[in-house]
Design a protein that fits this description.
Elements (H helix, E strand, L loop, with lengths): L17 H17 L1 E6 L5 H12 L6 E4 L4 H8 L11 E6 L12 H6 L1 E3 L3 H9 L5 H8 L6 H14 L3 H8 L2 H10 L2 H7 L4 H12 L3 H7 L7 H20 L17 H17 L1 H13 L2 H6 L12 H16 L3 H12 L8 H4 L2 H23 L3 H5 L5 H29 L7 H33 L12 H10 L5 E6 L4 H11 L5 E9 L6 H7 L11 E3 L6 E6 L2 E3 L2 H12 L6 E3 H5 L3 H7 L5 E6 L1 H7 L3 H21 L4 E6 L4 E2 L20 E4 L8 E5 L11 E5 L14 E2 L5 H4 E9 L8 E13 L2 E13 L9 E7 L7 E9 L1 E4 L2 E5 L4 E9 L3 E3 L2 E3 L6 E3 L7 E5 L6 H6 L16 H13 L1 E3 H7 L3 H9 L1 H5 L5 E7 L2 E8 L2
Parallel strand pairs: 1-3, 1-4, 2-3, 5-11, 5-12, 10-11, 19-28, 25-29
Antiparallel strand pairs: 6-18, 7-8, 8-9, 12-18, 13-17, 14-16, 15-16, 19-20, 20-25, 21-24, 21-27, 22-25, 23-24, 26-29, 30-32, 31-32
Helix pairs in contact: 1-5, 5-6, 8-11, 13-14, 13-15, 14-15, 17-18, 17-20, 18-20, 20-22, 20-23, 22-23, 22-25, 22-31, 30-31, 35-36
Pfam families: PglZ
Protein name: BREX-6 system phosphatase PglZ
Length: 976
């Protein structure tokens, strides 16, 4: 080995050449991160450079030690004695020329090598990294092609090129970031002015060639034959940057000859192009869209050859997003859930600012991707759960094991299924791209879920036939009150007991996830099996303490075909009042308030404090889920009801309640499969939807049977017959999507959610306000812009919430349903809520539907009582689309007020305008002459005419202008 020696008196300037300086900066970064850096210099390119580093270190110009192997292992080891030892890592570079990972193994330096971090840098890579972005890529390639390249030669070469560009416009351009060049060109800055005057064009091209590798052939192909403008320069450069990003993201070599040179660029240049593409998407979206579309038109061969599997994560061009959407739908149709989810997740769950550019301004495409993502998530959940419960259980075939398996695996399937059905109602409209194919995929997913649910139901019913339909006592619904609720009521204070009709286990699991991170709180969720049959008359009455030594005394109907309630000592429990009485008798206390969910969420904490003052137990009863489901609107409103449960929990906690138990009487099946036929069972008048109680012990195909006495029902002699799948019995009535009463896991597994707060809730001194304004809708959806701001703060508060939950409702028209579709900006839709970032604007897209055409106000408000939020109401009214399916239950759910109010007139600016619109509302029309008299004359009429469209938006009906026989009239179009 031979090593160059540093000349006496070497100066620090020997490492200040542009390539050497880049190398030293890279070394310094490695030392800062790793401490000890062992530099393997196999080709001995850097010995002279390292000698200069040692001189610089001796002069105090470097923050790290420099040592080197110069022919003697022993000398280096002695030299490092006391430097590389000890427990702390000393900032240190050790240069080992002519060594690689293999040859170092057989030397005394191995221990030293293993103590540090290996560093390697080929001279070829170093020259590329140092020169990229400063000189043209072709100049770099030409220099590296020379034989016997050295570091000293590279310094001289790059210095000469840079020195030639010193001074004048070239120097100014080198000092500018590439993104700043685009800003100047697009905003009419200094460079734009120079180009407009025909000056400095060559300097700009040279700078763009260096920073993004823009070749002359590309710019000549992109430029118009007319006089060059600044925007033409920006377009040519931006189109190249987009192509480079596309090729770098591509998983194969490009097909288009235009793109062949993109892949050969130095990595720093590629990264610069990607940075410019991202910057233009964020800061110049209109220019980006035009550039991308025009560039795509030149790449027809690339577009034709593109397959979704070849495309990367960035949708540089419009065709990429479209091609991948079609492929994702194809994957869904083939049952390739993982691939469909992979494509959808990066477009749906992307972090703010990273979502596909082509989705940002197209809510309909966002809707399509959201549905694909939800559908794929359901398919994946089914795969994870397995098609057979019996296979999942293996040899452990007990009811308790089945219950635990469902809680661990099956719940994710049913939750994903419910979420998909909710999103389908909200998002699947004909305006969605690929509507027919998407709808077909979602229909097939319904069948896939149905087959899975049927298989698990059959296996579960087989277990029940073998081991009995009742689990161990700790899993029974009938023991819940005495096992869980009563012990909590014996502690000081009040316990809240939520008995929620049809809150199935997966909904309880969702609540659990939303509450589990509450500070100073213990949250537990455990499954139990609802009693059979899974109907309100059984389950809701058994949530009261009616069990005696594990047995029940049912109160049967006169025909002995249904259970009406249960005996509890001297009285029967069969309605809310008798349930309250049985609970009060068991726990004691001065009172036992029975409140509906609506009672709680419509009251403040002071009222609730008074209501529970003498109570050990307060019961909160809700039937909203069951009502909504039975009226055919369950998926539309499930999320709203979950919000109300959280709001009620929060309000009661603020009122002083520290212990909560949330449970249900039974679950439900969400079939949503109109192709399924009903299962016959004797006469159509015999069965209920999902069960039959008969005095005759008869077995039927496709059913299971259990004697009521085997369910612990004292004195009951009948038999309960149930479908062994998710089938619905033929009752002669129209099939509905929301059913219960059977022995499926979706119906029988109920949540027992306990929430115990170790400290009282702390009040917030921060008040927020919501600003909301109407904006232009798109794709059949309305739009409003919103922003949440802090409007009052009584004291200095640290840790205020960065996000606030919002919901949308109609305050002035009955029966109107709000469907949240998409958001844009710093907000997202989660569980039927808009989660908005405080201080950041956002757009919300939504639809309104109701029993009749109307125009309604909307209110953006905070539904969950977590914070003090002043709602926002836009001045404009929004069109309500009439549907036949919405029923009066909506009024209860949404809490809307009477439609007969004339409060909308108060939004109009003066009495004359109010008089005109009041006349139109009452009589349907007003002539221009009549309006002039109401408005105080021609001047008032002219002001009215100028503002007519703005004023008409505030009316709960449409108004048009007609001219008949030369007479101008303002005409009501109907209550829309």
């Amino acid at each position: 080995m031979t090593f160059a020696n540093s000349a006496p008196g070497s100066l620090i300037s020997d490492i200040s050449g542009p390539v050497s300086a880049a190398l030293e900066a890279d070394l310094r970064s490695w030392v800062r991160r790793h401490g000890i850096v062992v530099w393997l210099d196999l080709d001995n390119h850097y010995t002279a450079f390292v000698n200069h580093l040692k001189v610089a270190r001796d002069a105090g110009a470097l923050p790290y030690e420099v040592h080197a192997f110069r022919g003697s292992h022993l000398a280096l080891i002695i030299e490092l004695d006391g430097v590389a030892g000890g427990t702390e890592k000393v900032p240190l570079v050790i240069h080992l020329p002519c060594f690689n990972e293999d040859s170092i193994q057989n030397t005394p330096l191995l221990e030293l090598y293993e103590a540090g971090v290996r560093y390697r840098k080929s001279l070829d890579t170093l020259v590329t990294d140092a020169a990229a972005g400063q000189v043209r890529p072709d100049q770099i390639t030409s220099f590296k092609a020379q034989p016997d390249m050295t570091l000293e030669g590279a310094d001289a070469w790059l210095s000469a090129l840079l020195n030639n560009a010193e001074g004048g416009m070239a120097a100014q351009l080198r000092a500018m970031q590439p993104t700043a060049v685009f800003d100047d060109l697009l905003k009419g800055g200094f460079l734009a002015g120079e180009i407009g005057q025909g000056r400095s064009v060559d300097a700009v091209w040279e700078r763009l060639a260096a920073s993004i590798g823009l070749p002359k052939s590309w710019r000549d192909a992109m430029l118009p034959p007319s006089q060059l403008r600044a925007e033409d320069v920006a377009f040519a450069a931006a189109s190249w940057a987009l192509c480079v990003e596309y090729v770098d993201d591509l998983k194969r070599a490009p097909s288009s000859a235009y793109l062949a040179a993109c892949a050969e660029l130095p990595r720093p240049v590629i990264e610069s192009c990607k940075g410019i593409a991202g910057y233009l998407r964020e800061q110049h979206p209109g220019f980006y869209q035009r550039t991308a579309d025009e560039t795509e038109a030149l790449l027809s061969d690339e577009v034709d050859a593109a397959r979704a599997e070849d495309l990367g994560r960035i949708d540089t061009f419009r065709f990429e997003e479209d091609r991948v959407l079609k492929a994702a739908l194809e994957a869904l149709s083939l049952g390739n859930w993982s691939l469909a989810f992979e494509w959808a997740a990066v477009r749906v769950d992307a972090k703010p600012g990273t979502a596909s550019f082509w989705l940002r301004d197209d809510p309909n495409r966002q809707s399509a991707w959201q549905l694909v993502c939800d559908a794929a998530r359901l398919g994946q959940a089914i795969v994870r759960a397995g098609n057979q419960l019996s296979v999942r259980l293996g040899g452990n075939g007990s009811l308790e094991a089945a219950l635990d398996a469902y809680a661990e695996y099956g719940v994710a399937v049913d939750q994903a299924h419910r979420m998909l059905e909710q999103r389908r109602v909200t998002l699947l409209y004909p305006q969605v791209p690929e509507f027919e194919m998407l709808r077909a995929c979602l229909d097939e997913l319904r069948q896939v879920w149905r087959r899975w649910a049927d298989a698990w139901a059959c296996d579960f019913n087989a277990l029940c036939k073998k081991h009995g339909f009742l689990p161990a006592a700790s899993y029974q619904q009938r023991t819940l009150f005495d096992d869980v609720v009563r012990p909590l009521t014996q502690e000081p204070g009040t316990t809240a007991y939520f008995v929620v009709d049809a809150l199935r286990f997966e909904m309880g699991e969702e609540l659990y996830r939303q509450l589990q991170d509450t500070p100073a709180t213990t949250v537990q969720l455990k499954p139990r099996l609802a009693e059979l049959p899974t109907v309100t008359e059984v389950g809701m009455n058994l949530l009261a303490p009616v069990v005696q030594s594990g047995r029940l005394a049912p109160v049967m109907s006169t025909d002995a075909c249904s259970v009406q309630g249960f005996k509890a000592g001297e009285f029967s429990v069969f309605d809310p009042e008798t349930r309250r009485r049985a609970m009060h008798d068991r726990v004691g206390g001065g009172t036992c308030p029975w409140l509906t969910l609506e009672d709680v969420v419509s009251r403040d904490s002071n009222y609730l404090k008074r209501a529970i003052a003498q109570a050990r137990l307060v019961v909160v009863h809700s039937r909203e889920i069951d009502k909504a489901g039975e009226n055919g609107i369950g998926p539309v409103v499930f999320d709203h009801l979950m919000q109300k449960l959280r709001a009620a929990w929060r309000l009661l906690r603020d009122a002083g309640v520290r212990r909560f138990v949330i449970t249900s009487d039974h679950g439900f099946l969400l079939l949503n499969d109109k192709t399924a036929s009903a299962q016959a069972h004797g006469r159509r008048i015999d069965p209920n939807q999902r069960h039959v109680i008969s005095p005759i012990a008869a077995d039927h195909a496709g059913e299971v049977r259990v004697a009521l006495s085997d369910l612990g029902y004292e004195g009951a002699t009948g038999h309960l017959m149930l479908a062994e799948t998710t089938a619905v019995f033929d009752t002669g009535c129209r099939l509905t999507s929301f059913v219960h009463g059977g022995n499926s896991l979706q119906e029988r597994v109920i949540p027992v959610l306990t929430v115990i707060h170790r400290a009282a809730a702390g009040g917030s001194t921060v008040q927020y306000g919501v600003k909301a304004e109407a904006s232009e809708g798109v794709g059949g959806m309305h739009c409003l812009t919103g922003k949440v701001e802090i409007v009052a703060q009584q004291s200095l508060v640290f840790g205020t919430s960065d996000e606030v939950e919002l919901a949308l409702r109609v305050p002035d028209v009955d029966g109107v349903q709000v469907e949240l579709c998409q958001t844009r900006g710093k907000a997202r839709i989660v569980g039927g809520l808009v989660v908005a970032t405080v201080g950041e604007p956002f757009e919300l897209f939504f639809r309104l539907s109701g029993p009749a055409d109307a125009r309604a106000l909307v209110e953006l408000y905070h539904p969950s009582a977590v914070a003090d939020v002043v709602p926002g109401i836009p001045d404009a009214r929004f069109t309500v689309t009439a549907t036949r399916s919405l029923l009066p239950v909506q009024q209860t759910i949404q809490g809307t007020s009477s439609a007969g109010s004339t409060a909308w007139l108060d939004q109009l600016p003066d009495s004359g305008t109010r008089q005109v619109f009041e006349h139109i509302a009452a009589y349907g029309t007003v002539t221009e002459t009549e309006a002039s008299a109401m408005l105080g004359g021609p001047r008032g009429l002219r002001r009215f005419a100028v503002r007519f469209e703005e004023l008409a938006e505030k009316a709960p009906f449409g108004v048009r202008i007609d001219v008949v026989a030369g007479v101008k009239r303002y005409v009501r179009e109907g209550t829309r």
